[in-house]
Amino acid sequence: MNPTKFISYLRVSTDKQGKSGLGLEAQRKQVADFIVSCGGSLDAEFIEVESGKNNDRLELAKAIRQSQLTGNKLIIAKLDRISRSLHYITSLAESRIDFVVCDLPGCDQFTINLYGALAQRERELISQRTKSSLQALKDRGVALGNPQNLNEDSAAKGRVLGVAERKRRAFIFAQRIHPTIKEYQEQGVSLNKIASKLNECGILTARGKEGCWTPTAVKNVIATIAKK
What we know:
By secondary structure, this protein is of the alpha/beta class. It has helices at residues 24-37, 58-70, 86-94, 109-139, 152-186, 191-200, 215-227, and strands at 5-12, 41-49, 73-76, 99-101.
């Protein structure tokens, strides 16, 4: 019997959480320990820096798509790493995705719904506390917001940060796919042929598209890694 192959999804809300108990390394270790315990193997890893209340997440979509394409099991360290939305959690549980949560390895549909409801309640409480704190500040006469944030200089800084974030995401993606590309290069395979092989294997592009690898896209991944 072949060992189960897993696709892991790791998420943190902010870069600062990398140093906390919900950091990437903590999640990665929890996932790795679980996979070892069941004699499986890790096939792919998807990392996202995004708020749990945002259900439209690119890396999670890629992980789900990869699971659909390969039949490998999606693995998450903790349930709230998927979302704190009950609707989203239950929708995923009811989909055709085969997934497991490390801290709830034996959970069934009822358990998923229960924990999902608790996760959503936590999100609601956080939102209520935030609103209460802001209202308390307003009641004390504290001016909220900063009009200077709306000037052209700040807008320009925002654009620069946006470009930097896109580059960061591009590098993370390049890190994941480059070992495969490098292996083909060492075998003397051309860029055109590498693109064809990636498409044949169902590997998604940086934009999450299937069957859209081109020689230029392969070359861009190589260049991205080379710049670092």
